[in-house]
Write a structure and sequence with these properties.
With about 300 residues, the protein is α+β, with helices and mostly antiparallel strands. It has two domains: about 5-200 and about 275-295, Creatine Amidinohydrolase (Alpha-Beta Complex), CATH 3.90.230.10; about 205-270, Orthogonal Bundle (Arc Repressor Mutant, subunit A), CATH 1.10.10. It is about 35% helix and about 25% strand. The strands form five sheets. The chain has a five-stranded antiparallel sheet. Strands 1, 2, 4 and 5 form a four-stranded antiparallel sheet that branches. It has a three-stranded antiparallel sheet with strand order 3-15-11, with no helix packed on it. It starts with a helix and ends with a strand.
Length: about 300
């Protein structure tokens, strides 16, 4: 990794850390989720970065991929367990972090945090990824919860949020090892429920997939926006940022266009991920550059 790339990752990490701390500071019972999302995303830009995806504000049995709709009226409740998952990019170099905010679920939150700490302690070139996964699994179970088996950590590349290798949160066997200068996000999820998630409904996060022919003129405009963006975007972003690409300021037209783009494989959606038994879920996440002295850029 050259020095220029390293500095961009470090800068993205600094902004992401500040953003995580800011999000935690303003997430209070009674706060509208939409207000929280908009403030967090605005904060990222104020710090000189760009959101790498719409901030995920996932409640209770939802592990990830929920971002508020443009007219969302959901208010945080003191009984909720909220996962804030945010990413920042600087010229496409991404830092990814997640934190759990709660008022009554301290043990569940600490299980994910302890698993993350145990995993980070192992990060070095040549370490088996399966050893990291085993540590995550054992720590979460040791706290009396179950790891989410079908959610994983992952590597990051320029303008790529998820790539190989993946870092499972459960024990498995593999000879794959970490390599020098890989950038990886480790993100344990602890559950009181099934320990695996299913796709929910009401997709609000999308990303460009392929430049394919579409008939709807609004769909063509959204596809231009998505290709320009390169990274995931929210339906609610289209109502603002999409204007310079000619995207209509009409939720009805936007949703029709998104349906066509999904059907044709021009974009793909990220459905909310829900615990199969509606158990509560906590998350903790940091991004680390793999070296003999690892650089945890979001801590």
């Amino acid at each position: 990794m050259d020095d220029g790339t390293l500095q961009k990752y470090i800068e993205a990490g600094k902004i992401t850390k500040k953003t995580r701390e800011y999000g935690v500071s303003i997430a209070k019972p009674g706060t509208p989720l939409l207000e929280l999302a908009e403030k967090i995303e605005a904060f990222i830009r104020e710090q000189g970065g760009e959101p790498a995806w719409p901030v995920n504000l996932s409640l209770n049995e939802c592990a990830a991929h929920y971002t508020p709709v443009h007219n969302d009226e959901t208010l945080l409740d003191g009984k909720d367990i909220l996962k804030i998952d945010c990413g920042v990019h600087v010229d496409g170099y991404i830092a990814d972090t997640g934190v759990t905010v709660q008022w009554h679920h301290d043990k569940l939150t600490k299980a994910a945090e302890a698993a993350l700490d145990a995993a980070l302690d192992l990060v070095r070139p040549g370490v088996k990824i399966s050893d990291i996964s085993t540590a995550i699994d054992e720590v979460i179970r040791g706290h009396g919860f179950v790891p989410v088996s079908n959610l994983t950590g992952h590597a990051l590349e320029q303008y790529v949020v998820h790539t190989e290798p993946t870092i499972p949160n459960v024990k498995y066997s593999s000879p794959t090892t970490l390599e020098e200068d890989q950038v990886i996000a480790i993100e344990p999820f602890a559950s009181t429920g099934a320990g695996h998630v299913n796709d929910g409904s009401d997709i609000q996060i999308f990303a460009f997939e392929a430049d394919v022919p579409v008939r709807n003129p609004d769909a063509k405009k959204i596809l231009l926006y998505a290709a320009h963006k390169q990274l995931p975007f929210a339906e609610r972003w289209l109502m603002k940022e999409g204007q310079e690409f000619g995207v209509p300021n009409s939720l009805f037209k936007v949703r029709i266009a998104l349906r066509e783009l999904l059907a044709r494989g021009a974009i793909h959606g990220y459905p909310p991920l829900m615990d199969a038994k509606k158990g509560l879920i906590s998350q903790a996440e940091h991004t680390v550059i793999v070296r003999d002295e690892p650089i945890v850029i979001t801590r």
